[in-house]
Design a protein that fits this description.
434 Repressor (Amino-terminal Domain); mainly alpha; single chain
Length: about 80
C-alpha cells in the first residue's frame, strides 16, 4: 500500500502539484487532496489507488514498502523507522 507521505514525497521528487497528479492519474483534484491528507496508509477504492500508483510509476517513481530493498538505481526517499 502507499502512504500519504509517499504520495507527497513522490510529487516533490518529480516536481508536480496536486492538480498535475490528478490529471496524470485521471482522478479528481479533491480525491488527490483527500489521499494526501489521510493519516498513514491511503484509503480509497482499488481502482483509484491503482491509477495513482500507475501515474507515479509512469513518471519514474519507485514505491518502496517497509523493509524492502530498492530494485533499481536512482534517487529516492525512505522514512527510517523509529530509533530503538
Amino acid at each position: 500500500m502507499i502512504t500519504a507521505a509517499q504520495v507527497r514525497a513522490a510529487r516533490a521528487l518529480i516536481g508536480i502539484d496536486q492538480r498535475e497528479l490528478a490529471e496524470r492519474s485521471g482522478l479528481s483534484l479533491p480525491t488527490i487532496q483527500r489521499m494526501e491528507a489521510s493519516d498513514g496508509v491511503v484509503r480509497g477504492n482499488v481502482d483509484s489507488l491503482m491509477k495513482l500508483v500507475a501515474a507515479l510509476e509512469a513518471a519514474g517513481i519507485e514505491l518502496i514498502s517497509d523493509n524492502a530493498t530498492s530494485a533499481g538505481g536512482g534517487r529516492g526517499v525512505r522514512l527510517k523507522g523509529a530509533a530503538r
